[in-house]
Amino acid sequence: MYHADKMLLDKMLLCLKRGAVFIADSHYRGGGDCGGDLSMLDFVAKSSPKSSIESSPKKSAESALDLKKDTKASTDLHLLEVLDSFISLPPSDLPPQVFLMGDIADLFIGHIPSSLRANRHLIDKINALSQKCEVFYFEGNHDFGIDSSILPNVKIYPRFLQPALFDFDGQIYALAHGDIFIGNGYEIYIKAMNSALTLSALKLLDICSFGKIYDFANAKVNAKKIHHLEFAKDSFCSFVKRRVECYVNAIAKSSKICVGKSEGTSQKIQISGIIEGHFHIGQKISQSFGKFGDIEYISLPSFYCQREIFTLL
Fold first, then answer.
1. Which pLDDT band holds residue 56 (cuts at 50, 70, 90)?
2. Cα distance between residue 149 and residue 107, in whole Å
3. Is the pLDDT of residue 113 over 90?
4. pLDDT the model gives residue 291
5. How many CA atoms, within 13 angstroms, populate the side-chain half-sphere of residue 280?
6. Interval 270-292: pLDDT, tens
7. 14 has which bridge partners?
């Protein structure tokens, strides 16, 4: 019976492919178009942290990210240039999948006309890239209310479908933006912000104010400082343990966890990895978590803070 259930689950899961690229927390703030520059992509490829899926479970968090940094290049690197660089590549050189893991824009609310105008260049680049390779968009706390009318060829994961489960070489990985399991107060706030009533009200206010309310809110959000979160080794391990426990327990209890795209499953699921953004950390660790087994936890780097992307190898 279990074997049959496992086969069914495998068929439901979308595949996470080697060479997949993850971009998280870029906090795009609008701006003009830019031309593609393959030299920029060369830098990105060199700077991508390598996955340690095949490495020792005892590999430390401090040495887990194998980075080759170029400070000047990273300072000048721009999200649109990276997307342009991918778009310019021939099909044989493209990553098989690009995962946009939330907070890609600093304020992108799909229902609001002013927000669509402010993020037009970003939307155009994502749509162009989705014509060439698989693109996934995990909504974050800065970008939500996005649907297929805006990104028609992109697989969109709103917050209520996160974490989403993917198959990676026969192992199950849970993917999410990361602003989940934070606390009851935050949960009430973010659910209210994502509700259909709130989104409709925001759209009406935007139209009635001729975009002035959105411009004011956008300026306030843009003015906030965004920080890279750093941990000592012991503190990071404690943080990871709490995150792993939250994910495993939630997946064990819930029949609404997104499997592949939109199907749910009540079957007991053993996850082998977690990939999330939101925290602007850029570290990973692979080890045994007692009763939860061996799990690899990957906290994605913030593109805004660290000018880095993550490639799953």
1. very low
2. 18
3. yes
4. 87
5. 16
6. 899 999 999 999 999 999 998 88
7. 166
Residues 8-53: tens digit of each pLDDT: 455 578 999 999 999 999 999 876 544 444 344 443 443 444 443 3
**Total-model pTM:** 0.82
Q: Tell me, letter by letter, the H, E, C secondary structure of the chain.
A: CHHHHHHHHHHHCEECCCCCEEECCCCECCCCCCCCCHHHHHHHHHHCCECCCCCCCCCCHHHCCCCCCCHHHHHHCCHHHHHHHHHHCCHHHCCCEEEECCCCECCEECCCHHHHHHCHHHHHHHHHHHCCCEEEEECCCCEECCCCCCCCCCEEECHHHCCEEEEECCEEEEEECCCCCCCHHHHHHHHHHHCHHHHHHHHHHHHHCCCHHHHHHHHHHHHCCCCCCCCCHHHHHHHHHHHHHHHHHHHHHCCCCEECCCECCCCCCCEEEEEECCCCCCEEEEEECHHHCEEEEEECCCHHHHCCCEECC
By residue range, what is the domain housing residue 237? 2-311
CATH number of residue 140's parent domain:
3.60.21
Residues in CB range of 255: below 8 A, 6 or more apart: 264, 265, 266
Q: Round to whole Å and give the CA distance between 97 and 136.
A: 8
Number of domains in the chain: 1
